[in-house]
Design a protein that fits this description.
By secondary structure, the chain is of the alpha+beta class. It has helices at 39-50, 90-97, 115-144, 178-186; strands at residues 5-19, 23-32, 56-65, 72-82, 102-110, 152-158, 163-164, 168-169, 198-213. The chain has 2 domains: 5-19 and 114-213, Translation Initiation Factor IF3, CATH 3.30.110; 23-110, ACT domain (Alpha-Beta Plaits, 2-Layer Sandwich). It contains 4 helices and 9 strands.
Length: 218
């Protein structure tokens, strides 16, 4: 026998605040090619000397011929994750590393939380949404339950993983754009500032269907 079901649909949202543990620096590295020289090895060696102990990644490479000199130049796209305090001396470190035939150009600073942080946030957000779905069923049972026909959670459909909102710095010093931070470092300022990181609000939404069986009345 098919027992008819009543259903109610609701939308629930949860949010978390995540402080980025590191900042990803994205560089273009230009190297003038020379016969017999391992360009990538030279670039990676220079990168390791510029920020000791950091793990660099080469994510792309292209070659062009300089129209003025006729020399071939390789451009490597590289990124590295570092503690935010590294920014304080980054401008001077770049200046020390750059030399004839080799230049590091900072293209962007990315404060997006790491994948591990986002995975943990998604886990906690789903847990909260499940609890909210259960609370919604309890609310219906409190208000409109009849003859022990209890409402229950029929389904929870998550609308994708957590979505990051606009980033904001957690301290006033860090409210300055990354470029301003680099300028301050070049002038010798900010070395004694406390490392605070960037805080982002992430949210997740789920569509919940609450159901109850409806028995025939005699």
């Amino acid at each position: 026998m098919n027992i008819p079901m009543n259903s109610v649909s609701v939308s629930v949202t949860a949010e978390r605040y995540i402080t980025a543990e590191t900042v990803k620096l994205i560089f273009n590295v230009n190297f003038v090619l020379d016969e017999g020289v391992d360009a990538r090895a030279e670039v990676e060696k220079a990168a390791a000397e510029m920020i000791p102990g950091a793990e660099w990644y080469v994510t792309g490479m292209s070659k062009v011929e300089d129209a003025r000199t006729g020399m071939e130049i390789a451009t490597y796209r590289m990124n590295v994750r570092v503690k935010e305090s590294v920014l304080n001396g980054l401008t001077k470190a770049i200046e020390r590393t750059n030399r004839k035939g080799l230049t590091f150009e900072l293209q962007d600073t990315d404060y997006t939380p790491t994948q591990a942080q986002m995975d943990e946030a998604n886990k906690e957000l789903r847990k909260e949404l499940y609890a909210k779905a259960k609370d919604e069923a309890g609310l219906l049972n409190e208000l409109i339950s009849e003859n022990d026909e209890n409402w229950m959670v029929g389904s929870v459909n998550f609308q994708g993983d957590a979505v990051a909102a606009k980033a904001m710095r957690s301290q006033m010093y860090n409210s300055r754009p990354a470029g301003m931070m680099l300028e301050a470092a070049a002038m010798g300022g900010g070395d004694d500032e406390e490392e605070a990181g960037i805080t982002q609000r992430v949210s997740m939404t789920a569509n919940v269907v609450l159901t109850r069986k409806v028995y025939a009345r005699l």
